[in-house]
Structure formats: structure tokens, C-alpha cells
Design goal:
alpha+beta; BirA Bifunctional Protein, domain 2; SH3 type barrels; five-stranded antiparallel beta sheet; 8 helices; globular
Length: 292
């Protein structure tokens, strides 16, 4: 995915193995939490197109490059076991490891690139909510929240994040929803990178999660955006309840400016509403949210 940069490792598990070695490989990978299976994924998300890579610089970049090279024809799921040039918002670099998810869902929308811009803040929240729903379908984690605008927080630690990018395709627009998720391996962030330390599902649940089932659950929910884009984005009621630190006093950094106030929730554009000390409600469409 376009959010997570993987650690380069030399591993015999990613070489093609003989039939006699297959059981050993599968067992070892499952024990390590790296249980992604291309065959299982193809079966679970069929008839969607799947592009599966052992190593890829960026799953988001792959989708966008396919469009620019004239190779994008239909909705596609792109997964990489290892990602070598992932990035997040504002081009921040991330590290991940095999056993986590680095994936992108690419689909086209019958809107021009200039028209779709108004939908993007809402799309980030709706897409993140779909991921939360998918995780909840395999694990009961009521403490899982969305940190506006695009992060997933579990027990006050960062579980993952999304990056949404777009590119024109004739009279339409291709949307790439990228996801980086700490599933079976935790990552280490460089000092000062983020105020929230990372966490994985395995750390919280105490056992590895089936990556194939989780991918299928996420993709199934993202397909709703593909099929009914504007309807999904206009069904915005109730999403505020899933926000991290809702109702608390928070800081929002917008460029060089800093604002403090009570987090009221989301507005209809997908932005954030903050009640300032003077009683004014300020809305944000971009920015960084921090706890005090």
C-alpha cells in the first residue's frame, strides 16, 4: 500500500519452493503471522482482479501508474507482502513487516478530477469506517477508533492508516484507496514521527489474524463505495460516533496555525468541527489532530 514502507529482509520463505518444501513453508509463515495466500485471496475476492506481489515499491503507485500507462480497465485489488517505498500523508515514510497488510483498492468513478475533490474528505472517513467494520467482523474491538482524518487507533496506539489518491482517466477519475495495517507484526516508528506508538492486532488479541479473511472483509465493504459512490458518501449519519477522543479538548494543527477546543465531530463535508474557547465553531478539512 502506499502507506507502509517495509523493512528489506533476506528470507528463504519468499523463494519458490519444491513440493516437498511446501508444508514447511506454509507452517513457518503461519507461525510468523505472514499467512497471506494468493490462491486463497483470489478465491475469496473473485471475480475482482487481484495483483499480488511479493515485493512492490507502493501499491497505490502501482494503480496510478497502470492508469497513466493505459493498463487500467476495471476495479483491482493490489497487495504486496513487502513494500519498499510506502508513504503516508505529506509523503511521510513508514516501515512495516511481512505479516501486516499493504494494499490498495483501485476503482473508477464517473466524476471529473476537479469534481471529485469535494468528496475526498468524506471518502477518507467512510473508507476508514469500512475498515473498522471489517476488523470488527473478525474481532470484537469496541476500543478501535478513527483518528481524523485517516488513522486507526486501538487502545491509544496506532493500528494503521489510509492514503487516498486520484488520477484522471478520460472523463472519469480513478480512486486508489491505500491501507497500511499492523495485523500480525508491530512496527517501530522513528523518534518524533508520531505521538502514538504502534500496535498490532496480534498484540491485542493474543493470536495471529487470518490476513486472507481480513482482506476479503475489507474489500467487500470497499466495493460498496465502488458500486454506489455518491450514495455511500452521502450516508454520513452516525460516523462521528467512531471518532477518537470525541468530546474531549484537542489540538488541531493547520499549517503554521494551532487551535485548541472541544472535538465536536464531523461535518457534512467530512471535515472536523472544533468548538474554540470563544464559542466559535471552526471547521477543518485538512490538518493534524493531537491530544493535549
Amino acid at each position: 500500500m502506499s502507506l507502509w514502507n517495509c523493512i528489506h529482509i533476506e528470507s528463504p520463505f519468499y523463494k519458490k519452493l519444491t513440493t516437498d518444501q511446501a508444508y514447511c513453508e506454509e507452517t513457518t509463515l503461519q507461525e510468523s503471522g505472514d499467512n497471506l495466500s494468493e490462491l486463497k485471496l483470489r478465491d475469496r475476492i473473485s471475480p475482482l482482479s487481484l495483483k499480488f506481489f511479493e515485493t512492490l515499491p507502493s501499491t497505490n503507485r502501482y494503480v496510478l501508474d497502470e492508469v497513466r500507462q493505459g493498463n487500467f480497465h476495471d476495479s483491482v485489488v493490489v497487495l504486496a507482502r513487502l513494500q519498499t517505498a510506502g508513504r503516508g500523508r505529506r509523503e511521510k515514510q513508514w516501515e512495516s513487516a511481512a505479516g501486516n497488510l499493504a494494499m490498495t483498492y483501485g476503482f473508477s468513478v464517473d466524476l471529473s478530477l476537479s469534481s471529485i475533490g469535494d468528496f475526498l474528505p468524506r471518502l477518507a472517513i467512510v473508507a476508514a469506517t469500512k475498515v473498522v467494520e471489517a476488523i470488527q467482523s473478525v474481532a470484537n474491538l469496541p476500543q478501535l477508533k478513527i483518528k481524523w482524518p485517516n488513522d486507526l487507533v486501538l487502545n491509544e496506539r496506532k493500528l494503521g492508516g489510509l492514503l487516498i489518491e486520484t488520477t484522471p482517466l478520460e472523463q472519469s477519475t480513478v480512486v486508489a484507496i491505500g491501507l497500511g495495517l499492523n495485523v500480525n507484526k508491530a512496527i517501530t516508528l522513528p523518534p518524533g514521527f508520531d505521538q502514538l506508538p504502534p500496535v498490532s492486532l496480534t498484540e491485542v488479541l493474543g493470536h495471529p489474524t487470518d490476513l486472507n479473511g481480513l482482506v476479503a472483509a475489507i474489500v467487500g465493504r470497499w466495493q460498496e463505495l465502488d458500486h454506489t459512490f455518491e450514495t455511500c458518501l452521502n450516508s454520513f449519519d452516525g460516523l462521528t460516533a467512531g471518532l477518537w477522543r470525541l468530546g474531549e479538548t484537542m489540538l488541531v494543527f493547520e499549517g503554521a496555525d494551532q487551535y485548541q477546543g472541544q472535538l465536536l465531530g464531523l461535518n457534512r463535508l467530512g471535515g472536523l468541527d472544533l468548538s474554540l474557547a470563544n464559542g466559535v465553531v471552526k471547521s477543518f478539512t485538512t490538518g493534524t489532530l493531537r491530544a493535549i
